[in-house]
Design a protein that fits this description.
It is an enzyme of class 2 (transferase). Residues 1-148 form the N-acetyltransferase domain. InterPro entries: Acyl_CoA_acyltransferase, GNAT_dom, Ribosomal_N-acetyltransferase. This is GNAT family N-acetyltransferase. By secondary structure, this protein is α+β, with helices and mostly antiparallel strands. It has one domain (5-146): Aminopeptidase (3-Layer(aba) Sandwich). 40% of the residues lie in helices and 31% in strands. It has helices spanning 13-30, 80-94, 110-118, 147-169, 174-182, and strands at residues 37-44, 47-59, 64-71, 100-105, 122-133, 136-146. A 6-stranded mixed sheet has the order 1-2-3-4-6-5, with helices on both faces. A hairpin with a 2-residue loop joins strand 1 (37-44) and strand 2 (47-59). Helix 4 runs antiparallel to helix 5 (174-182). The longest helix has 23 residues, at 147-169. The radius of gyration is 19 Å and the shape is globular. Bound molecules: coenzyme A.
């Protein structure tokens, strides 16, 4: 996983050089044909000029992609990563026609695990000694989402949204919303 300079509290000139090289590499790969990498920059509506994070997919295998994301340290916990990952995942399935999207996550990365769980990813298993970081080999947990699962989640979300809208616009219909959607555990 590439750690962008935006996640660090202090930047040295070396960090800046790394960040510039990363962006230049990203732009170059975006021009390649066929394109194998897609980046989604995250910025706040009130400050669109400042990129606070990204979501990325790299295409690999047959109709498959890997998902990565990061948000600047001071901007976490506001749902930006979930929003970006959901948007990019939808793009992968709906626009790129992928069948499978996977994410490899460090076992201690509770935020990232919570994020993919919200998007409906399933845990597949452990990738042993998957990354070499800070002088040691480390495992990753592998999560994935398949196109039919994404489709099914979309239908459920749409039904819930319609029922919610009906519940708040019709007095007395909140009970039926609870009955249909509120008590489900999945
Ligand atoms: C992982 C990361 C992108 C999450 O960014 P974020 O903007 O905080 O994510 P969101 O706010 O969209 O969602 C985080 C979820 O984690 C949950 N969370 C926050 N702190 C948590 C904790 N300590 N334990 C468990 N869950 C936690 C949040 O509650 C939220 O879920 P919710 O919306 O259901 O409440 C960010 O922490 C990051 O950039 N980390 C460094 C890079 C990285 O690890 N990338 C992922 C590589 S796979």
């Amino acid at each position: 996983m590439i750690k962008p300079a935006t996640t660090r509290k202090r930047r040295s000139p070396g960090d800046r050089g790394q960040a510039v090289a990363m962006i230049e590499g990203t732009l170059e790969r975006a021009r390649q044909e066929p394109r194998v990498e897609f980046y989604f920059a995250v910025a706040k509506a009130c400050d669109e000029a400042r990129v606070i994070g990204f979501a990325r997919i790299g295409l690999a295998g047959v109709k498959a992609g890997t998902l990565d994301y990061a948000i600047a340290a001071g901007e976490r916990g506001h749902g930006y990563a979930t929003d970006a990952a959901r948007t990019l995942t939808s793009y992968e399935f709906a626009e790129l026609g992928l069948h499978r999207v996977s994410a490899a996550i460090g076992p201690d990365n509770a935020r990232s695990i919570a994020l993919v769980a919200k998007l409906g990813f399933s845990r597949e298993g452990v990738l042993r000694d998957h990354v070499f970081m800070n002088g040691a080999w480390r495992d990753s947990l592998l999560y994935s989402l398949l196109a039919p699962e994404w489709q099914e989640n979309n239908v459920r979300l749409q039904r819930a949204t319609e029922a919610f809208n009906a519940a708040i616009s019709r007095p007395g219909s909140a009970e039926s919303f609870d009955r249909d959607f509120g008590k489900k555990s999945h």
